[in-house]
Amino acid sequence: MENNVTQNQEPALKLNIKRTAIIGFAFFGILLLRQVYDSWCPTFLTELFKGAFPNITNEEEVQYLVGIIMALDNLAALILLPIFGALSDKTKSPIGKRMPYILVGTFVCAVAFPFIPVFFHYNNIAGVIAMMAIVVIFMMMYRNPAVSLMPDMTPTPLRSKANGIINIMGYIGGAFATVVGIVFVLSDYLDINGEGGWAAGNIWVIEIPFLLASVLMVASCLVLFFKIKENKIEAEIAPEMKRGEELSELKEKVVDDKPLTRGNKIMLILILVAEFFWFMSDNGIATFMGNYTIYYFEASSSSNMINTIVGGVGSVIGFALGGLIAGKIGRKWTLVGGLGLTLVSYIIWAILSFTLLEFSKGSGQFPIFLYIIWFVKGFGMSLVHVNSYPMVVELCNSKKIGRFTGYYYAASMAAQTITPVALGSILLVPSFDFGILPIYALVCLGISFVVFLFVKNVKSTKTEFKKGLESIGSDD
């Protein structure tokens, strides 16, 4: 009898925080590069298109061309992320199944990335677009495998907590890129054109951010390579991974080499549809919030930068707490809570935007209440992001994590490709202006919330975590 008790009292699952943070270096590199890319490349293209098509005097037409090029990035991601995910699932090598893609993708990106500002400086539009294409393709090569490393090495019940750490690492990368962008201001380069045009500017103003991003990408990749031995770690943690699968929140368990059950298939579709609409909302706001600030309120663009920072603080708090909350009430209800909290903040945003006359169109003031709304939005959506990806990869076995990661990112990239066009088309209607932004965000998120409520095939579980120093595993 005593032996049976001993056997049944298995130790609580523990999250290897150090290893998870090291895996997060991959996401650090991803968001660092992406932030520099998104911050600078649209302006490069704008200036080059203006020079290449001098007959175009309408700013909207130039931005339309820029929008097409930038939208192609998301279209490429929509296609390539599932492909590289599925390929990495089937790869076997001495350094693991994900690491070959991470190494090749990182180093090609790091080499090509600094050439984007070089070609811009020398007014070579074909060179800029070619380098952007190379960066996007190889970024997709390492993004899916890098993200897949976390569920590869984390038991199912601990993935939300691990995903929070991964996202915080990514935010650090994005924040670093923002600081670099503040120091090396693009406008300084474009304004040094008194006698020779923008190409007469100091090239290092635009080159250093790209070089720094490349160097840090390579450094983070090398840390990952030397610290994370895929094959060795996966063999060591196999018993923990098996126990994690037994503690899954799914009512219908996933069985190796068998298709998804009907219930799990419906659950996957509902999560991806809900994800599509919350990214329609979130990315639509992200795309046009700057213009909303400048052209609707006629307020300073710095107000939007402060607002973004406030939202980021809320997000980091949510990333830190999202996994812990899910461990108490389950991922589904944590995610429902995050969507609901954000939805309420959007309702308040919409009501106040149309009732507070002092913050009406052309007031010249950025609404103070938006800082509070953005903090709440950042916290709420971080609960969503921390738990949604683990819910998707929980629906597959270890042989298909890359493929299901591809499904997750395909849904988000489809939304990010469509929403700028959809919202931009609405704004072309004569009776609409940027004041429609909170309504658009509210409608898209409302659809997402309703769809997600139909996710049924889960049970609420309480995960027993080790605490304090015990939660930190060995240095694999």
Question: Could you explain how this protein is built, in words?
Answer:
By secondary structure, the protein is mainly alpha-helical. It has two domains: 234 residues, MFS general substrate transporter like domains (Growth Hormone, Chain: A); 209 residues, Growth Hormone, Chain: A (Up-down Bundle), CATH 1.20.1250. Helix content is 74%, strand content 0%. Helix 13 packs across helix 15 and helix 14 packs antiparallel against helix 17. The radius of gyration is 23 Å and the shape is globular. The chain starts with a helix and ends in a 24-residue tail after the last helix.
Backbone structural class: mainly alpha
Q: What's the CATH architecture of the largest domain?
A: Up-down Bundle
Shape: globular
Give the DSSP E fraction (strand runs of 2 or more residues).
Answer: under 5%
- Biggest sheet, open or closed, and with what strands and sense? none
Domains (count): 2
CATH homologous superfamily descriptor of the largest domain: MFS general substrate transporter like domains
In the CATH scheme, the class of the largest domain would be Mainly Alpha
N-to-C order of helices and strands: HHHHHHHHHHHHHHHHH
Distance between the termini: 36 Å
- Contiguous low-pLDDT stretches (5 residues minimum) are 1-8, 192-197, 463-476
| Percentage of residues assigned to helices | over 70%
What gyration radius follows from the Cα positions, in whole Å?
23 Å
